[in-house]
Design goal:
Distance between the termini: 30 Å
Structural class: alpha+beta
Strand order of the largest sheet: 9-10-11-12-13-8-14
Protein name: Phosphatidylglycerol lysyltransferase C-terminal domain-containing protein
Number of domains: 2
CATH architecture of the largest domain: 3-Layer(aba) Sandwich
Strand content: 25-35%
InterPro entries: Acyl_CoA_acyltransferase (IPR016181), LPG_synthase_C (IPR024320), UCP018688 (IPR016732)
CATH superfamily of the largest domain: Gcn5-related N-acetyltransferase (GNAT)
Number of strands: 15
Order of helices and strands: EHHHEEEEHEHEEHHEHHEEEHEHEE
Shape: globular
CATH class of the largest domain: Alpha Beta
Helix content: 25-40%
Amino acid sequence: MEQFKKITIEDKNILTEHLSLRKYRACDLSIGNLILWSDVYNTQFAVAGDNLFIKFVEGNNEYFTFPAGKGDLKQSFEWLFDYCKKHDKEFKLNVVDPSMFEEIENLYPGMFEISYQRDNADYVYNVEDLKNLSGKKYHGKKNHVNKFKKTHIDWSYEKITDENTPECIEMVKEWCTQNGCCEDKSKADEICVLIKGLKLRKELNMIGGIIRLEGKIIALTLGEQSGDDMFIIHFEKAFSHIDGAYQMINQQFIINELAGNFTYVNREEDMGVEGLRKAKESYYPAFMAEKGIVVRK
């Protein structure tokens, strides 16, 4: 299949077959991410020479990913060069990490350059750090958690299940109303994708958790495994007027679902949003998963 086609849930197996052969630290090439956001980013894929190519379309720009699979890498790049020439498209790769660029340099010395986008780098944390919140640097986070537990006796944690999914969807819709999604397309897109993720949770092997307060869901999170040692948090929503709700879902999900099973948790990028960057930095990442754009020099 050498023509690009839109990614759908039916393509899960073929995506997994190729993408599982490499360990990715960035969130963009996780199966759930590709399928859930395919409508927003018009994400497409093609298979040529036993390698998988992903294409993201943003307006008039098209970005391709590093070939994934068992096929010959140089032949795969030659196929992609021919595709771009045939369709009068600029050759641009996105979501390229340093190890990928090293492979490109080995094949085509000095032909390409990479620029890393700080706004797009993923925050990757040690699971144990976020579980324990130990030490002075996490003092503020622990205070929020302790205050929540002291103020609210009637709280509980649950895993997301078929039974509570309808309540999760209602909670997300309420969050959307409170946070002005109707006036913000990016927020509205995210909420639509989150609801889609909740509905396709089992098909995509996703895991989620919720916090209830007096029986009502006040926070939820949803994500998926990536490789053998990392979990990606794709979504996290809480009612911000409840002090400590975000810190609680963050820690409780780690304690109940991730601790002992994963070494790292990827909490995705900050997209250059100042408040989001401050919040993510305050949890002290173990490292940043860099993602670059590659073009011809």
